[in-house]
Amino acid sequence: MSAPFDLLETDRLLSTTRAVRRRLDLERSVERELLLECISLAQQAPTASNTQSWRWMIVTDAQLRAQLAGLYREISEQALPGARKHFARDAQTERVYDSAEWLGQHLHEVPVLVIPCVENRFGPSPDAAGAASLYGSIFPAIWSFQLALRSRGLGSTLTTIHLYRADEVAKLLGIPESMTQVALLPVAYTRGTAFKPARRPPPESITHWNRWQDEGPVA
Ligand SMILES: Cc1cc2nc3c(=O)[nH]c(=O)nc-3n(C[C@H](O)[C@H](O)[C@H](O)COP(=O)(O)O)c2cc1C
User: Fold this and answer.
1) Is 38 domain-assigned?
2) What per-residue confidence (pLDDT) applies to 134?
3) Domain tally, the chain
4) Residue 49 belongs to a domain
């Protein structure tokens, strides 16, 4: 098959961009230009009605990072043990929770904290299409940003628990009320750049052809 891209490299990027926490290099600073380059690539992502309504809040100031991380730590200590009980049904997920709890204790040491936001807020009764359109106009860009970081030797993790106290974070950073915060990503160079694909079930087990009910093998 002749492909327009080097599939070995693109597939390696897509299959090894992991949630990185413990392997973030907490000692090395990250260049502003590099972050802007990754945002520029993320701006190629799709948005509903071509709104391009994304905004990127980047926190590098040590004092602000410490305050933000203080909030994050409190939420992490409150929320993660219960979530672990509910969701951790296998060793892989137990490891994710170990790593997530570690992040809660060390977030203040991460050199860059990125809060992707999207312009607009939900009205009083959000519907499914409105929700998909609002969040769908930022998550593809977040993933592109994470892929661009990975291809340059940096790592990140998409986290959302700070949103339990999004109003306090907005006040701390002066984020206007018209913005919806969507995530918080710790960003740093990684210690080493070799990451493995994660174990996932075969795609056939999560794919439905034509009708939801399994048709069985096609002759
Ligand atoms: C919507 C969403 C919310 C997430 N929230 C958190 C979070 O609050 N804290 C955290 O450490 N990781 C969070 N993650 C990262 C997941 O734990 C991670 O993507 C998943 O375990 C897969 O890990 P892997 O990329 O290493 O395979 C979140 C991921 C998504 C997609």
Assistant:
1) yes
2) 93
3) 1
4) yes
Quote the distance between the C-alpha of residue 211 and its chain's center: 32
How far is residue 48's CA from residue 146's CA, in Å, rounded to a whole number?
A: 20
Structural domain boundaries, residue 52: 23-65+111-193
User: What ligand 1 atom has the least distance to the C-alpha of 17?
Assistant: 25
101 within domain boundaries: no
Report how far residue 156's alpha carbon sits from residue 154's, in angstroms, rounded to the nearest whole number.
7
Please work out whether the CB of residue 142 comes within 6 Å of at least one atom of ligand 1.
no
Expressed in angstroms and rounded, the spacing between residue 16 Cα and the centre of ligand 1 is 14
What pLDDT score was predicted for residue 123? 76
Residue nearest to atom 8 of ligand 1 (CA): 159
Judge if the beta carbon of residue 83 lies within 6 A of ligand 1.
no
- Identify the CATH number of the domain in which residue 186 sits: 3.40.109.10
3-state secondary structure of 131: helix
Task: Evaluate if residue 219 carries a pLDDT over 60.
Answer: no
Q: For ligand 1, is residue 159 a contact (CB within 6 Å)?
A: yes
pLDDT exceeds cutoff 60 at 216: no
Atom of ligand 1 nearest to the CA of 183: 3
Give me the residues paired with residue 58 across strands: 114
Residue 208 lies in a domain: no
CA distance linking residue 1 with residue 3, whole number of Å: 6
**From the CB of 96, is ligand 1 less than 6 Å away?**
yes
* 163 C-beta closer than 6 A to ligand 1: no
Encode pLDDT of 42-83 as tens digits.
999 999 999 999 999 999 999 999 999 999 999 999 999 999
Query: What spacing in Å lies between the alpha carbon of 159 and ligand 1's midpoint?
Result: 6
183 has which bridge partners? none
